[in-house]
Protein backbone atom coordinates (compact mmCIF):
# COMPACT_ATOMS: atom_id res chain seq x y z
CA UNK A 1 0.00 0.00 0.00
CA UNK A 2 1.31 3.42 -0.98
CA UNK A 3 1.72 5.89 1.88
CA UNK A 4 1.70 9.69 1.56
CA UNK A 5 5.49 9.60 1.29
CA UNK A 6 5.35 6.95 -1.46
CA UNK A 7 2.87 9.02 -3.45
CA UNK A 8 5.07 12.09 -3.05
CA UNK A 9 8.17 10.31 -4.39
CA UNK A 10 6.18 8.65 -7.18
CA UNK A 11 4.70 12.01 -8.27
CA UNK A 12 8.14 13.56 -8.28
CA UNK A 13 9.47 10.68 -10.36
CA UNK A 14 6.59 10.86 -12.85
CA UNK A 15 7.08 14.62 -13.23
CA UNK A 16 10.78 14.03 -13.95
CA UNK A 17 9.79 11.37 -16.49
CA UNK A 18 7.52 13.79 -18.33
CA UNK A 19 10.24 16.46 -18.40
CA UNK A 20 12.86 14.00 -19.67
CA UNK A 21 10.48 12.57 -22.28
CA UNK A 22 9.54 16.04 -23.55
CA UNK A 23 13.18 17.12 -23.73
CA UNK A 24 14.71 14.00 -25.27
CA UNK A 25 11.85 13.14 -27.63
CA UNK A 26 11.76 16.76 -28.79
CA UNK A 27 15.52 16.75 -29.34
CA UNK A 28 15.29 13.44 -31.19
CA UNK A 29 12.54 14.74 -33.48
CA UNK A 30 14.42 17.95 -34.26
CA UNK A 31 17.58 16.04 -35.19
CA UNK A 32 15.73 13.40 -37.20
CA UNK A 33 13.55 15.88 -39.10
CA UNK A 34 16.65 17.95 -39.90
CA UNK A 35 18.37 14.87 -41.28
CA UNK A 36 15.43 14.03 -43.58
CA UNK A 37 14.30 17.53 -44.47
CA UNK A 38 15.51 17.21 -48.06
CA UNK A 39 13.50 14.05 -48.72
CA UNK A 40 10.43 15.48 -46.98
CA UNK A 41 10.59 18.76 -48.89
CA UNK A 42 11.09 16.96 -52.20
CA UNK A 43 8.03 14.82 -51.53
CA UNK A 44 5.60 17.55 -50.43
CA UNK A 45 6.96 20.95 -51.38
CA UNK A 46 6.97 23.96 -49.04
CA UNK A 47 3.25 24.24 -48.26
CA UNK A 48 2.76 20.56 -47.60
CA UNK A 49 5.88 20.17 -45.46
CA UNK A 50 4.29 20.62 -42.02
CA UNK A 51 1.34 18.23 -42.68
CA UNK A 52 3.78 15.67 -44.06
CA UNK A 53 6.07 15.94 -41.00
CA UNK A 54 3.05 15.33 -38.75
CA UNK A 55 1.91 12.42 -40.92
CA UNK A 56 5.33 10.78 -40.83
CA UNK A 57 6.40 11.45 -37.23
CA UNK A 58 3.21 11.21 -35.17
CA UNK A 59 2.99 7.42 -35.77
CA UNK A 60 6.69 7.17 -34.84
CA UNK A 61 6.22 8.54 -31.31
CA UNK A 62 5.35 5.09 -29.83
CA UNK A 63 8.45 3.68 -31.55
CA UNK A 64 10.59 6.49 -30.12
CA UNK A 65 9.02 5.76 -26.72
CA UNK A 66 10.11 2.15 -27.11
CA UNK A 67 13.69 3.08 -27.96
CA UNK A 68 14.23 5.73 -25.27
CA UNK A 69 12.21 4.43 -22.29
CA UNK A 70 14.94 2.34 -20.56
CA UNK A 71 17.35 5.28 -20.53
CA UNK A 72 14.80 7.98 -19.73
CA UNK A 73 13.59 5.93 -16.76
CA UNK A 74 17.14 5.94 -15.33
CA UNK A 75 17.75 9.65 -16.00
CA UNK A 76 14.44 10.63 -14.40
CA UNK A 77 15.12 8.48 -11.32
CA UNK A 78 18.57 9.99 -10.86
CA UNK A 79 17.11 13.48 -11.33
CA UNK A 80 14.50 12.72 -8.64
CA UNK A 81 17.06 11.46 -6.11
CA UNK A 82 19.37 14.37 -6.89
CA UNK A 83 16.55 16.83 -6.25
CA UNK A 84 15.84 15.16 -2.90
CA UNK A 85 19.54 15.59 -2.06
CA UNK A 86 19.48 19.25 -3.02
CA UNK A 87 16.42 19.92 -0.86
CA UNK A 88 17.97 17.98 2.06
CA UNK A 89 15.00 15.61 2.07
CA UNK A 90 17.19 12.51 2.18
CA UNK A 91 19.11 13.93 5.11
CA UNK A 92 15.89 14.52 7.06
CA UNK A 93 14.64 11.03 6.26
CA UNK A 94 17.94 9.46 7.35
CA UNK A 95 17.87 11.35 10.65
CA UNK A 96 14.28 10.15 11.16
CA UNK A 97 15.41 6.53 10.79
CA UNK A 98 14.00 5.91 7.30
CA UNK A 99 16.28 3.57 5.36
CA UNK A 100 17.49 4.30 1.85
CA UNK A 101 15.82 1.14 0.56
CA UNK A 102 12.49 2.39 1.89
CA UNK A 103 13.02 5.70 0.08
CA UNK A 104 13.72 3.92 -3.21
CA UNK A 105 10.73 1.57 -3.03
CA UNK A 106 8.28 3.86 -4.91
CA UNK A 107 10.90 4.45 -7.62
CA UNK A 108 11.17 0.72 -8.29
CA UNK A 109 7.38 0.27 -8.15
CA UNK A 110 6.94 3.00 -10.76
CA UNK A 111 9.85 1.48 -12.72
CA UNK A 112 8.01 -1.87 -12.91
CA UNK A 113 4.89 0.00 -14.07
CA UNK A 114 6.95 1.70 -16.77
CA UNK A 115 8.26 -1.72 -17.86
CA UNK A 116 4.67 -3.04 -18.18
CA UNK A 117 3.64 0.03 -20.18
CA UNK A 118 6.74 -0.46 -22.31
CA UNK A 119 5.67 -4.04 -23.10
CA UNK A 120 2.07 -3.00 -23.88
CA UNK A 121 3.30 -0.31 -26.26
CA UNK A 122 5.67 -2.79 -27.89
CA UNK A 123 3.09 -5.55 -28.34
CA UNK A 124 -0.13 -3.72 -29.16
CA UNK A 125 0.43 -0.16 -30.34
CA UNK A 126 3.55 -0.30 -32.52
CA UNK A 127 2.37 -3.32 -34.62
CA UNK A 128 -0.92 -1.52 -35.35
CA UNK A 129 1.08 1.36 -36.82
CA UNK A 130 3.29 -0.86 -38.98
CA UNK A 131 1.81 0.24 -42.32
CA UNK A 132 2.12 3.93 -41.43
CA UNK A 133 5.68 3.42 -40.21
CA UNK A 134 6.65 1.66 -43.43
CA UNK A 135 5.09 4.43 -45.50
CA UNK A 136 7.07 6.96 -43.48
CA UNK A 137 10.24 4.98 -44.15
CA UNK A 138 9.50 5.08 -47.86
CA UNK A 139 9.00 8.86 -47.80
CA UNK A 140 12.08 9.62 -45.72
CA UNK A 141 14.32 7.42 -47.82
CA UNK A 142 13.62 9.57 -50.88
CA UNK A 143 13.40 6.27 -52.73
CA UNK A 144 11.00 3.48 -53.47
CA UNK A 145 11.21 1.26 -50.40
CA UNK A 146 7.79 -0.03 -51.34
CA UNK A 147 9.81 -2.36 -53.58
CA UNK A 148 11.94 -5.26 -52.36
CA UNK A 149 14.42 -6.35 -55.02
CA UNK A 150 16.01 -9.76 -55.52
CA UNK A 151 14.45 -11.48 -52.53
CA UNK A 152 15.57 -15.07 -52.00
CA UNK A 153 14.55 -17.56 -49.31
CA UNK A 154 14.08 -21.25 -48.59
CA UNK A 155 10.60 -21.97 -47.22
CA UNK A 156 9.56 -24.62 -44.71
CA UNK A 157 8.95 -27.16 -47.48
CA UNK A 158 12.49 -26.82 -48.81
CA UNK A 159 11.49 -24.84 -51.91
CA UNK A 160 13.94 -22.19 -53.08
CA UNK A 161 12.01 -19.00 -53.88
CA UNK A 162 13.42 -16.06 -55.80
CA UNK A 163 11.41 -12.86 -56.39
CA UNK A 164 12.90 -10.27 -58.69
CA UNK A 165 10.62 -7.52 -57.38
CA UNK A 166 8.06 -7.43 -54.58
CA UNK A 167 5.71 -4.53 -53.84
CA UNK A 168 5.08 -4.43 -50.12
CA UNK A 169 1.82 -2.50 -49.93
CA UNK A 170 0.14 -4.21 -52.90
CA UNK A 171 1.41 -7.73 -51.95
CA UNK A 172 2.45 -8.31 -55.57
CA UNK A 173 5.46 -10.19 -56.93
CA UNK A 174 7.20 -9.76 -60.27
CA UNK A 175 9.58 -12.28 -61.82
CA UNK A 176 8.98 -15.33 -59.61
CA UNK A 177 11.15 -18.45 -59.75
CA UNK A 178 10.45 -21.41 -57.46
CA UNK A 179 12.61 -24.52 -57.45
CA UNK A 180 11.34 -27.68 -55.74
CA UNK A 181 13.68 -30.59 -54.99
CA UNK A 182 13.35 -34.34 -54.60
CA UNK A 183 13.24 -35.17 -50.89
CA UNK A 184 16.38 -36.93 -49.72
CA UNK A 185 17.91 -37.00 -53.19
CA UNK A 186 21.39 -35.54 -53.51
CA UNK A 187 23.93 -35.77 -56.32
CA UNK A 188 27.51 -34.48 -56.02
CA UNK A 189 26.60 -32.53 -52.92
CA UNK A 190 23.64 -30.77 -54.55
CA UNK A 191 19.92 -31.38 -54.21
CA UNK A 192 18.16 -32.66 -57.31
CA UNK A 193 15.52 -30.49 -58.96
CA UNK A 194 12.01 -31.90 -59.10
CA UNK A 195 10.23 -29.03 -60.80
CA UNK A 196 10.91 -25.44 -61.76
CA UNK A 197 8.15 -22.81 -61.66
CA UNK A 198 8.53 -19.53 -63.50
CA UNK A 199 5.85 -16.84 -63.34
CA UNK A 200 5.60 -13.26 -64.52
CA UNK A 201 3.78 -12.17 -61.40
CA UNK A 202 2.11 -13.38 -58.23
CA UNK A 203 -0.52 -11.97 -55.87
CA UNK A 204 -1.46 -12.62 -52.25
CA UNK A 205 -5.25 -12.76 -52.03
CA UNK A 206 -8.15 -14.65 -50.48
CA UNK A 207 -9.26 -17.83 -52.24
CA UNK A 208 -12.81 -19.12 -52.59
CA UNK A 209 -12.32 -21.31 -49.50
CA UNK A 210 -11.58 -18.24 -47.39
CA UNK A 211 -7.82 -18.85 -47.07
CA UNK A 212 -5.22 -16.35 -48.15
CA UNK A 213 -2.54 -17.70 -50.44
CA UNK A 214 -0.33 -16.86 -53.40
CA UNK A 215 -1.65 -17.00 -56.97
CA UNK A 216 0.88 -17.05 -59.79
CA UNK A 217 0.12 -15.77 -63.28
CA UNK A 218 1.55 -16.11 -66.80
CA UNK A 219 4.18 -18.79 -66.39
CA UNK A 220 5.07 -22.42 -66.75
CA UNK A 221 6.12 -25.46 -64.74
CA UNK A 222 8.99 -27.66 -65.91
CA UNK A 223 9.24 -31.17 -64.45
CA UNK A 224 12.55 -32.97 -63.98
CA UNK A 225 13.62 -36.58 -63.60
CA UNK A 226 15.98 -37.52 -60.75
CA UNK A 227 18.77 -37.50 -63.37
CA UNK A 228 18.05 -33.76 -63.92
CA UNK A 229 16.62 -34.15 -67.43
CA UNK A 230 13.15 -32.75 -68.21
CA UNK A 231 10.47 -35.39 -68.34
CA UNK A 232 9.22 -36.25 -71.86
CA UNK A 233 5.89 -34.44 -71.61
CA UNK A 234 4.71 -30.92 -72.41
CA UNK A 235 5.69 -28.16 -70.01
CA UNK A 236 2.61 -27.11 -68.04
CA UNK A 237 1.66 -23.50 -68.79
CA UNK A 238 -0.75 -21.31 -66.80
CA UNK A 239 -2.39 -17.94 -67.32
CA UNK A 240 -3.67 -15.26 -64.92
CA UNK A 241 -4.00 -16.59 -61.36
CA UNK A 242 -3.57 -20.04 -62.90
CA UNK A 243 -1.31 -21.63 -60.30
CA UNK A 244 -2.06 -21.73 -56.57
CA UNK A 245 0.58 -22.14 -53.89
CA UNK A 246 -1.04 -24.17 -51.16
CA UNK A 247 -0.45 -23.53 -47.45
CA UNK A 248 1.04 -26.13 -45.06
CA UNK A 249 -1.43 -28.87 -44.18
CA UNK A 250 -3.18 -28.75 -47.56
CA UNK A 251 -2.88 -31.28 -50.36
CA UNK A 252 -1.98 -29.89 -53.81
CA UNK A 253 -4.92 -30.21 -56.21
CA UNK A 254 -2.83 -30.19 -59.39
CA UNK A 255 0.51 -31.65 -60.39
CA UNK A 256 2.06 -28.19 -60.72
CA UNK A 257 0.94 -26.85 -57.36
CA UNK A 258 3.38 -26.52 -54.48
CA UNK A 259 3.05 -26.15 -50.71
CA UNK A 260 4.79 -23.14 -49.15
CA UNK A 261 4.64 -21.29 -45.86
CA UNK A 262 6.03 -18.05 -47.31
CA UNK A 263 3.81 -15.10 -46.33
CA UNK A 264 4.04 -11.35 -47.03
CA UNK A 265 5.27 -10.65 -43.49
CA UNK A 266 8.36 -12.75 -44.11
CA UNK A 267 9.24 -10.67 -47.14
CA UNK A 268 8.68 -7.55 -45.06
CA UNK A 269 11.10 -8.81 -42.49
CA UNK A 270 13.87 -8.88 -45.07
CA UNK A 271 13.53 -5.18 -45.87
CA UNK A 272 11.84 -3.50 -42.89
CA UNK A 273 12.76 -3.11 -39.26
CA UNK A 274 11.89 -6.13 -37.14
CA UNK A 275 10.92 -3.63 -34.44
CA UNK A 276 7.60 -3.15 -36.24
CA UNK A 277 6.46 -6.70 -35.43
CA UNK A 278 4.95 -7.97 -32.20
CA UNK A 279 6.75 -10.69 -30.25
CA UNK A 280 4.21 -13.32 -31.33
CA UNK A 281 4.76 -12.37 -34.97
CA UNK A 282 8.53 -12.59 -34.50
CA UNK A 283 8.07 -16.03 -32.95
CA UNK A 284 6.02 -17.16 -35.93
CA UNK A 285 8.65 -15.86 -38.35
CA UNK A 286 11.35 -17.60 -36.33
CA UNK A 287 9.50 -20.91 -36.58
CA UNK A 288 9.42 -20.48 -40.34
CA UNK A 289 13.15 -19.64 -40.46
CA UNK A 290 14.72 -21.27 -37.37
CA UNK A 291 18.27 -20.74 -38.64
CA UNK A 292 17.96 -16.95 -38.86
CA UNK A 293 20.25 -15.42 -36.21
CA UNK A 294 18.77 -11.98 -36.92
CA UNK A 295 15.24 -13.13 -36.05
CA UNK A 296 16.37 -15.18 -33.06
CA UNK A 297 18.40 -12.35 -31.51
CA UNK A 298 15.56 -9.86 -32.00
CA UNK A 299 13.05 -12.33 -30.55
CA UNK A 300 15.02 -13.02 -27.34
CA UNK A 301 15.79 -9.33 -26.90
CA UNK A 302 12.05 -8.65 -26.56
CA UNK A 303 12.10 -10.50 -23.22
CA UNK A 304 15.33 -8.94 -21.99
CA UNK A 305 14.49 -5.29 -22.78
CA UNK A 306 11.82 -4.76 -20.06
CA UNK A 307 14.16 -6.27 -17.46
CA UNK A 308 16.82 -3.78 -18.58
CA UNK A 309 14.68 -0.92 -17.22
CA UNK A 310 14.97 -2.28 -13.67
CA UNK A 311 18.64 -3.20 -14.18
CA UNK A 312 19.49 0.37 -15.19
CA UNK A 313 17.74 1.67 -12.07
CA UNK A 314 19.79 -0.72 -9.93
CA UNK A 315 22.94 0.44 -11.67
CA UNK A 316 22.37 4.19 -11.61
CA UNK A 317 20.61 4.97 -8.33
CA UNK A 318 23.59 4.04 -6.10
CA UNK A 319 25.67 6.72 -7.83
CA UNK A 320 22.96 9.31 -7.28
CA UNK A 321 22.64 8.30 -3.61
CA UNK A 322 26.39 8.61 -3.03
CA UNK A 323 26.57 12.07 -4.61
CA UNK A 324 25.90 14.05 -1.46
CA UNK A 325 26.24 17.73 -2.20
CA UNK A 326 26.52 17.11 -5.92
CA UNK A 327 24.57 19.14 -8.40
CA UNK A 328 21.67 17.81 -10.41
CA UNK A 329 23.69 18.13 -13.59
CA UNK A 330 26.43 15.93 -12.18
CA UNK A 331 23.94 13.16 -11.45
CA UNK A 332 22.45 13.51 -14.93
CA UNK A 333 25.97 13.32 -16.37
CA UNK A 334 26.62 10.08 -14.49
CA UNK A 335 23.28 8.76 -15.74
CA UNK A 336 24.15 9.62 -19.34
CA UNK A 337 27.51 7.88 -18.97
CA UNK A 338 25.83 4.75 -17.60
CA UNK A 339 23.23 4.79 -20.37
CA UNK A 340 25.98 5.08 -22.96
CA UNK A 341 27.93 2.18 -21.43
CA UNK A 342 24.90 -0.11 -21.24
CA UNK A 343 23.81 0.83 -24.77
CA UNK A 344 27.31 0.14 -26.14
CA UNK A 345 27.44 -3.33 -24.56
CA UNK A 346 23.85 -4.10 -25.60
CA UNK A 347 24.51 -2.97 -29.19
CA UNK A 348 27.73 -4.98 -29.42
CA UNK A 349 26.06 -8.14 -28.09
CA UNK A 350 23.10 -7.75 -30.45
CA UNK A 351 25.46 -7.21 -33.40
CA UNK A 352 27.43 -10.35 -32.51
CA UNK A 353 24.21 -12.30 -32.02
CA UNK A 354 22.83 -11.32 -35.40
CA UNK A 355 26.16 -12.14 -37.01
CA UNK A 356 26.32 -15.60 -35.46
CA UNK A 357 29.37 -14.92 -33.25
CA UNK A 358 27.20 -15.25 -30.11
CA UNK A 359 24.20 -17.52 -29.47
CA UNK A 360 21.07 -15.36 -29.96
CA UNK A 361 19.77 -15.93 -26.42
CA UNK A 362 23.15 -15.11 -24.90
CA UNK A 363 23.40 -11.96 -27.03
CA UNK A 364 20.04 -10.74 -25.73
CA UNK A 365 20.55 -11.54 -22.04
CA UNK A 366 24.28 -10.97 -21.57
CA UNK A 367 24.02 -7.19 -20.78
CA UNK A 368 21.30 -7.90 -18.18
CA UNK A 369 23.27 -10.75 -16.62
CA UNK A 370 26.46 -8.66 -16.48
CA UNK A 371 25.05 -5.34 -15.27
CA UNK A 372 22.31 -6.78 -13.03
CA UNK A 373 24.57 -8.30 -10.35
CA UNK A 374 26.78 -5.20 -10.47
CA UNK A 375 23.71 -3.05 -9.81
CA UNK A 376 22.64 -5.23 -6.86
CA UNK A 377 26.13 -5.01 -5.38
CA UNK A 378 26.32 -1.23 -5.75
CA UNK A 379 22.87 -0.74 -4.24
CA UNK A 380 23.65 -3.07 -1.34
CA UNK A 381 26.89 -1.20 -0.63
CA UNK A 382 25.11 2.15 -0.18
CA UNK A 383 24.99 3.07 3.55
CA UNK A 384 21.37 2.73 4.66
List keywords for this structure.
2 domains, alpha+beta, 12 helices, 8-stranded mixed sheet, elongated, single chain, 384 residues
Descriptive account of the structure:
There is one protein chain. The chain is of the alpha+beta class. It has twelve helices and eight strands. The chain has two domains: 224 residues, no CATH class; 106 residues, no CATH class. Strands 1, 2, 3, 4, 5, 6, 7 and 8 form an eight-stranded mixed β-sheet that branches. Strand 2 and strand 3 form a beta hairpin. Helix 1 crosses helix 4 and helix 4 runs parallel beside helix 10. It is elongated, with a radius of gyration of 27 Å.
Give the CA-based shape. elongated
Mean pLDDT: 82
Q: How many domains would you count in the coordinates?
A: 2
Largest sheet: 8 strands, mixed
Fraction of residues in helix: 55-70%
- Main structural class: alpha+beta
Distance between the termini: 22 Å
Amino acid sequence: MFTIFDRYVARSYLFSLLVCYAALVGLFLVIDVSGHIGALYGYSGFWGLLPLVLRVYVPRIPLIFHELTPYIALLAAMFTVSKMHRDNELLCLSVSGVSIMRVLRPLFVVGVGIALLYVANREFLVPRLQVELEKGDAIMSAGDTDVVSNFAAVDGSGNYIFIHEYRIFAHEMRGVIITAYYPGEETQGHHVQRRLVRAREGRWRRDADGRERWFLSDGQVTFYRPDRTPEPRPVMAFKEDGLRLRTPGETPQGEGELVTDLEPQQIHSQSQELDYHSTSELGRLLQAAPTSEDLAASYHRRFASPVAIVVLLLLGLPFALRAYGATTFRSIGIGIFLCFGYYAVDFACLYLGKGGQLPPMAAAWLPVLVFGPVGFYLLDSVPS
